[in-house]
Write a structure and sequence with these properties.
Two copies of one chain form a homodimer. By secondary structure, chain A is of the alpha/beta class. Chain A contains 14 helices and 34 strands. Chain A has three domains: 155 residues, FAD/NAD(P)-binding domain; 198 residues, FAD/NAD(P)-binding domain (3-Layer(bba) Sandwich); 107 residues, Jelly Rolls (Sandwich), CATH 2.60.120.10. Chain A has a five-stranded parallel β-sheet, covered by helices on one side. A five-stranded parallel β-sheet of chain A has the order 11-18-12-13-14. In chain A, strands 27-34-29-32 form a four-stranded antiparallel β-sheet. In chain A, helix 1 runs parallel beside helix 9, helix 5 packs antiparallel against helix 6 and helix 5 runs parallel beside helix 7. The two termini of chain A are 45 Å apart. Chains A, B: Belongs to the NADH dehydrogenase family. Chains A, B: Keywords: FAD, Flavoprotein, Oxidoreductase.
């Protein structure tokens, strides 16, 4: 059976699978559908800002992919790399260190974009992104956390910082999130007798002279700006968030805003998995024809935010919106089914219906069919009605409606979802004879022996050749990390063993900053390499 | 105004504050009530197992403390240490490194017990505790995670491990959690065509010869064991969970159970904050009289699981149950109010009403008034009715009732609550002139300079005395960590600075295992100490 593999379970990926399942029913030759996604659920992105604000519960905006896609095989994994020539995708290992491959006949890129703060000094370290569900929860947690800290803070400077919130980026998501943050903070603060509402400051930093300048007509952008200003958001136009520290946000005008909470919604970068591929790219996006077929590859497809697909109706490229991704998915599923049997391919043609942006607190802006403009309560009612209708699955519709109803009576509690903090340096225990890693495994950790003895060997069975025995204070696994290769040997425990495991990324950070450590590792490696050869 | 400070917001602490607020109304001299809790909410512990199973939502079992206790001052912090003689409590710093003190006239210990796996090699590293809300979420996440991994696993040995679940401890919470885990796994597995229900194994390891031997009469304990066995739980009696590794659970009979999920409900240890105090302790619990007053201290009080309070009705000590803590709280609040004015103190007298244990899937066991025994559906209905009635706040009652109703129609989705992983080694960015830490701050991090230059100095204003200038590759902050003292100097950025920050605990782990690193740090420290002197 031919296998169609979809990378990504957002609007593009999930809806492609949904339509492929329909195609499957009428297909002459059955084919297999598989999807890879980091989570086992689909997130209804447009409602994420409401999770921050709390009019929706954490799980209201999500749909389990297995339920949505009963005939699709789901891999809940990270994609490690893609090998187009061999027709396979490497997924990140889980519960084992062995590489994990999935083969495909047709591959669909639906990877969207990523928030990429790398290279943005300060933002990278101290700004909260707003992109996925985990981000929404993190932002909500942070707001509750600073309010609690502010409630008992007697040092006025620190209290001021705790009650100041800075959002970078006044596009769609920046505007939506600042609106929700502002509503939440001002509503919650009333519950704290020691917090004076006048001490609360919410800033929105935008590089242009009006909000949502790319997405909305001028009048609606200005309306949004005025409305937010009236509700207490201070907007800084024509400036960027330059950097952030644990104590402040710094703008490129030189203004320094003392604060403990910085949210950044810019920029969306192309998914880094795509960049190294031998494909025709345009600003990091996969170039396709109007049938979503990748330039020069009959079995590769791309759609949504990670694709550069011509917009036949309006010229240019299709905009990176859910509206387009959902419609592209239907045409794409048809085209894949057609190329699997003998059908005729279609071209994607769609004229945007309009745009809507929520502004919190029962208001929104909307433009429909490029001519009708709405704002305020009416636009907000349209926003809710239209997105509610678009929610996939009856379950979701009921849950969201229920949350909206309850919100007016029993609002969602302002509490943090705390998880036990993940340990920087993991401690692991092994019993005698257990294998810590196998030859050929992916080199993802460095190990330091705290107690016990291990044996390092290569080969299997009779071919087994002992390389070294290591004890307390010695380390192993550094070779695969330093050389980015897979493990050259197997490590087995001779006794009960306690080890520290340092993640590849943490190891990299340490080694590149600790001179002594690097020298020491390099010396050991030299000795060991000679032993293997 | 006199200040009553309560440490801990569980049943003992929250209900003490609640009753103190009532006492406040009739008090001649008003007093201040304050409570310290790690979270800003109270968790209704008895329903936590249902969060694992998913018949209740994550936030259904919690009540914001501010709402519950409108007249109480809430500190959402960790307690660092307690100074009885000076009458103050040190709270962990947050958003600053400066120490944070709270003074008290009366102090109430309501710290409960903690899950303490220290010294339990293997369990400490690889077993999930089941004690608080974060634990419930973590267990639920883990179950969903292994099911997803198992669904696509082709290596039979790994698949077997992924589908095996081991719970250590067959007391109340162990029995409740294994019942919910078993129900959840078997229900969810049906949604995965590639998982054969026969491959699922759920084990309960108990040290005695019947379940809940301490809490329930023999007949009900045996009933629970038989019921769980019928539903597929394999119970190992008369043995302990000896250790665990990433690959298996090991029992002290020598049996090794290959698995990826180990949950341990034993043991509950006294809160480590209490141990160093100059108080009369009994097995780590604070000894009080029948009025909850701490032995020999007229302004110290203790109740609930962290107190050794005589049980006047039945002899011995009061058992560590919510039932007792709630009733103790009322008497304790009265006694504190009495000692603040001139009232007469009361003694705590209460005869347990009975015990109930849920067994999942519409069944439970219950014993009331020491003579009536119930099991199965009837006991389950009693369980729900009684605990529902005990839920504080109308909001909670509505939400829980709603969740229970919805559970039969639209069950809570089996999705993971994922948070962005906290980084092992934090990267921080500072701008010129910013202070990284102040003299006198708590030494909680070691810093390594990645880029930029800092100045280390002691004294303030004109007294300022530069100690050193440090640049790329150099580190600072190690002295307070090595000596467990507060900072001896202030560090200010001369340029924009990027640093790595290593948590005290991670630093400790590294230093005690890397010979070279320790030597190097000790050498630097020696030089710097001379510079300061």
């Amino acid at each position: 059976m031919k296998k169609v593999l979809i990378l990504g379970g957002g609007f593009g990926g999930a809806y492609t699978a949904m339509h492929l399942e329909k195609q499957l029913r009428k297909a002459k030759e059955p084919f297999e559908i598989a999807i890879v996604n980091r989570e086992n659920y689909f997130v209804f992105q447009p409602m994420l800002a409401e999770v921050v604000g709390g009019s929706l519960g954490i799980l209201d905006t999500i749909n389990p992919l297995r339920k949505l896609l009963p005939k699709t095989n789901l891999y809940v994994r990270e994609v490690d790399s893609i090998d187009i020539e061999q027709g396979k995708v490497f997924l990140a290992p889980k519960y084992s260190h062995a590489p994990y491959e999935v083969f495909f006949d047709h591959l669909v890129f639906a990877l969207g974009t990523v928030t990429d703060f790398r290279g943005m000094s300060g933002i990278h370290e101290h700004a909260l992104p707003f992109k996925n569900l985990a981000d929404s929860i993190a932002i909500r947690n942070q707001i509750i956390d600073v309010l609690e800290a502010a409630a008992n803070e007697t040092r006025p400077k620190l209290k001021e910082k705790l009650l100041t919130f800075v959002v970078g980026g006044g596009g769609f998501s920046g505007t939506e999130v600042v609106a929700e943050v502002n509503d939440l903070v001002r509503k919650q603060a009333k519950k704290y007798p020691s917090i004076d509402p006048k001490q609360i400051k919410v800033y929105l930093i935008h590089s242009k002279d009006r909000l949502m300048d790319k997405e909305m007509p001028e009048s609606l952008g200005s309306y949004a700006g005025k409305l937010l200003a009236k509700r207490g958001v201070e907007i800084r136009f024509n400036t960027h968030l330059k950097t952030a520290t644990p104590e402040e946000a710094v703008l490129d005008t030189g203004e320094r805003i003392p604060c403990k909470t910085v949210i950044s919604t810019v920029p969306s970068s192309p998914n880094p998995l795509i960049e190294p591929l031998p494909l025709n790219l345009q600003k990091g996006k996969v170039v396709t024809d109007a049938g979503m077929q990748v330039d020069g590859h009959s079995n590769l497809w791309a759609l949504g935010d990670c694709a550069a697909t011509p917009n036949l109706e309006e010229g240019g490229l299709c905009p990176p919106t859910a509206q387009f991704a959902i419609r592209q998915a239907k045409v794409l599923a048809h085209n894949i089914a057609a190329s699997l049997s003998v059908g005729k391919k279609k071209e994607f043609r769609f004229k945007a219906l309009g745009m809507m942006g929520a502004l919190g607190h029962q208001s929104a802006v909307a433009e429909l069919f490029g001519k009708f403009k709405f704002s305020g309560l009416l636009a907000w009612m349209m926003w809710r009605a239209i997105y509610w209708a678009k929610l996939p699955g009856v379950d979701r519709k009921v849950k969201v409606a229920l949350s909206w109803m309850l919100d007016t009576m029993i609002p969602i509690e302002a509490v943090q979802i705390k998880m036990a903090p993940t340990q920087g340096i993991a401690q692991l225990h092994f019993e005698p004879d257990e294998i810590i890693f196998h030859e050929g495994d992916i080199g993802d950790y460095l190990y330091i022996i705290v107690d016990g003895e291990v044996e390092v060997f290569s080969g299997k069975g009779k071919e087994e050749k002992t390389i070294a025995k290591l004890g307390k204070g010695e380390y192993f696994g550094e070779m695969a990390l330093l050389n980015q290769k897979s493990r050259l040997a197997t490590v087995r425990c001779l006794t009960a063993v306690d080890v520290l495991a340092l993640k590849k990324s943490d190891f990299g950070v340490l080694i590149s900053n600790f001179q002594e450590l690097r020298k020491d590792f390099e010396k050991t490696q030299e000795t060991r390499r000679r032993e293997i050869d």
